[in-house]
Amino acid sequence: MSNTVKPLKLCAGLAAALCAAAGVSAQSYPVKPVRVIVPYAAGGAVDAMARVFGQKYSELWGQTVIVENRAGAGGNIGSEVVAKAAPDGYTLLLNTSGQAVAPALYKRLSYDAVKDLAPVAGMVASALILVAPLQSSATSVKEFIALAKAQPNKLNFGSTGIGSGPHLAQEMFKSMAGIDIVHVPYKGDAPLFPALFTNEVQLAVVPSQTALAHIKAGKLRVLAVTNANRSASLPEVPTVAESGLPGYAFGGWTGLFASGGTPREVIRKIASDTTRMLVAPEVTLYYPRWGVELFNMGTEEFTARFLADIDKYAKIIRDAKIPQVE
């Protein structure tokens, strides 16, 4: 009997030691510099957030936080870096809700967005705004829908690119409204706004952080906010759901991911510190400048949202017959 008990006691002791080591590892995390991968070019909105967040993380952790831009392939190059990194919490990904679009939009991803990435925390939410040119006779969502129904396939809607968040938001709007309008993709915000100013396109969904200056200058007509709730930066503007399409809601977010397989204790530690970082006054003062609002979702809630958005965006892509990108 003694020969049986001793190995069992040894195994139990080893398991306890491993659990204790994991706990100590999580509590002492990080013990070396942390990389935050931004899958977009330097100077953009996500890059600006990463540098502010990184500075605060560095203060909280007492470690250097390195922001590394790995742009290309619609954000997939940077995502792949994190997906294939060691699952130890020292290589993190700061990405937008575009991460939930990738599995359906791209034909050959070199990583599995669900298995190879671990959602850590939802950080901030960005408002998307439905806008029309000043020349448009439509001053509301209902009026635009009526106008489009009277002229099927005669009106254009512009987006910042095929498969982008604004494109999917408009495809969802088009489907729920039962209208036929023509998609005109542009290479980003820079060429899209002049197209709106000149009535080349009659509708667009644009991020609030890039649209607010044009709206305040009186260059665009705001019809609605696409999010489920009104935006703090435009509180007088109704949501699309309030304006005649009940159940419509499409909003963007920015969140933090680790490599798949990262210990849950480490993820919990990062998530807890992220909550503290996001509400720090020296961080929240940037939110109005960025046109974002506090999202602050914990790991479980953010994971559920991420998985739900993957399904939601896949359905929009299928229904709109958006071709997959090679």
Structural description of this entry:
The structure is a single chain. This protein has about 325 residues and is of the alpha/beta class. The chain has 2 domains: about 30-125 and about 250-320, D-Maltodextrin-Binding Protein, domain 2 (3-Layer(aba) Sandwich); about 130-225, Periplasmic binding protein-like II (D-Maltodextrin-Binding Protein, domain 2), CATH 3.40.190.10. It contains 12 helices and 11 strands. The chain has helices at about 1-30, 45-60, 75-85, 100-105, 140-150, 165-175, 190-195, 210-215, 265-280, 280-285, 285-290, 300-320, and strands spanning about 35-40, 65-70, 90-95, 115-125, 130, 155-160, 180-185, 205, 220-225, 250-260, 290-295. The strands form 2 sheets. A 6-stranded mixed sheet has the order 2-1-3-10-4-11, sandwiched between helices. Strands 7-6-8-5-9 form a 5-stranded mixed sheet. Strand 1 (about 35-40), helix 2 and strand 2 (about 65-70) form a beta-alpha-beta unit. Helix 4 crosses helix 12 (about 300-320) and helix 6 packs across helix 12. It starts with a helix and ends in a 7-residue tail after the last helix.
